[in-house]
Each structure stands twice: as C-alpha cells, then as structure tokens.
Amino acid sequence: xxxxxxxxxxxxxxxxxxxxxxxxxxxxxxxxxxxxxxxxxxxxxxxxxxxxxxxxxxxxxxxxxxxxxxxxxxxxxxxxxxxxxxxxxxxxxxxxxxxxxxxxxxxxxxxxxxxxxxxxxxxxxxxxxxxxxxxxxxxxxxx
Length: 143
What we know:
The chain is built from five helices and four strands; from the N terminus they run βαβααββαα. It is mainly alpha-helical. It has a two-stranded parallel sheet with strand order 1-2. A two-stranded antiparallel sheet has the order 3-4.
C-alpha cells in the first residue's frame, strides 16, 4: 500500500454516465489500495452544511439531561446520543461521543421542528448520496 497523496474524488463525476465508470475505478483504487479518500463536490450546499454544523454545536452546548432525552437506548432505531465512555467495542471502552445524523433529525422532531428542517434535509441528502454510490459500486462490480 503505497501512495504519495490522499486521493481526491469529484463526486460530480459519479452522476454522469460519461464519467461514472472512471469515477468508480478511482473510488475502487482509493478504497482498496489507499484505504481512505477525500470527496469533493458532494452536492450539498455550503449553507446547509454550515447550518447543520451550527445546530450540532448548539446540541452539544445543551445541558447533559437535555441531550439524554434522545439517548440511544431510548430510541427504537438505536440511533441517537450517547455520552462519552458509554460505548464499547471488543470489550473496550470507546472514548467517543456517538452522535449520528439521525440524532439531529430526532432532536429536530422532538422540538416540533421549532428550530428548522435543516437536519432532516441534511440526513436525507447524505442518505441519497450514499445510496447512489453504493448502488453504482454494486452495479459496476456485477458488470
């Protein structure tokens, strides 16, 4: 596994039939030969990204008891917030605060959309992008 720079892939190339195959080859190389990559031109506007980041920060500024209202173990989906040190992997404590995009949706819904629909827009958009990439990669691998 040798590389000189982090692969940068332009997601806009994945949407065009003329460039999709080339994009998928680059994606395959980045994932199998390098192990990580940077994706640009993801199709999500800067305003939406900045708004969701601001709302994420606002969420983490809340008192702990407020954040615990959307705790993972209380959610049917098992998605939501967990405080630092509450997760384990391979019998070891994970020192992270898991907070999924679904958590922002749950928070917005819990507040009766009083804040904004932006977390829901962001979650829906990123899900559509992931689905498109996965479907493209599977279709390519089966061809």
